[in-house]
Amino acid sequence: MIAFITVANILWFITLLFWFLLLIRKPGHILVKVPPYSLSRFVYNGSKLNFEHKNETFSSLSMLDTQEDGGMIQPPPMFDCDRNGLPSWCSECCSLKLLRSHHSSVTNQCIPWFDHFCTFVGSTIGKQNYGYFIIYVMSIELLMIFTWITVVVYSGIKHSMHSALIVFVIITGALSISVAQLEINLISDLFYGETTIERLDRLSWKRSFKKDDKNNENFYDYSSYVNVQHPHEPNLRLIVPLTINDKPYDNGVFKNIRMWFYNINQLKTPIDVSNFQYDMYGDKFKRDIQKRIEENNYRIFGYESSIEPVSI
């Protein structure tokens, strides 16, 4: 019993310690506000083209201005976008949503590497406290397993078990299975370079796709996209759809883990943030996108979209 109490208290101490660290650490936020990308020329050029001639070179297209345009910055070679080719914008933070961020109503900030809001912990999980959360979940799992085994073994020695202990063992076992599932998901997300919200969005999209697998013409209505610089025409950009199984930020398990420990405070300018966002894409994903472009599986940015072209 002394050993049981000692080990149990140690596990409780670790659990409570990392819960406290989760609350004071906070999920982090992006220090740099990133202005909109300068995309007007690409919209204008795309609107001039005839879809049937998209593989030709157009000498009449406007030249790309490499200078910042009205406080805007030049887009990276590839970025996440909506079906019209535009990046996500946070009106609360007045900044582009980069570094896989989402706006948190709890902290009123865009959280980089936004994973989820944990009601049980009472904190948003993101870039800064994700590691603490994993240790917290592991300590809870060890505590429940240790308690479950101890109660079963100790009661087995006495050859009897009180009805209250039976209920306790059943509830603890069920909770242990649930926490184990969460732990497996967290480890899987690390392995594949996903966050919880990215995995859930992909699975939700996958279920929607199965329900509508006979109506492929609606593919552009519920898929994700990237806006990519045309490989041969510098004055054009392309919208490339993602597939259900794409994991854009999978760089291998070791680099995926190192990404979580990268200090984003080193990103001092909007260009730094934008370039780092591009570097987060996995090499395999970049090759897959280029292959889709070669197979003409794309749309020209600015062509057949709801974006109004501007005069150049």
UniProtKB/TrEMBL annotation:
The keyword Membrane applies. InterPro entries: Palmitoyltrfase_DHHC, PFA4/ZDH16/20/ERF2-like. Its main location: membrane. Coiled coil: none annotated. Pfam families: DHHC. The chain crosses the membrane at residues 6-24, 133-157, 163-182. This is Palmitoyltransferase. The DHHC domain is required for palmitoyltransferase activity. Its EC number is 2.3.1.225. It catalyses: L-cysteinyl-[protein] + hexadecanoyl-CoA = S-hexadecanoyl-L-cysteinyl-[protein] + CoA. Keywords: Acyltransferase, Lipoprotein, Membrane, Palmitate, Transferase, Transmembrane, Transmembrane helix. It is an enzyme of class 2 (transferase).
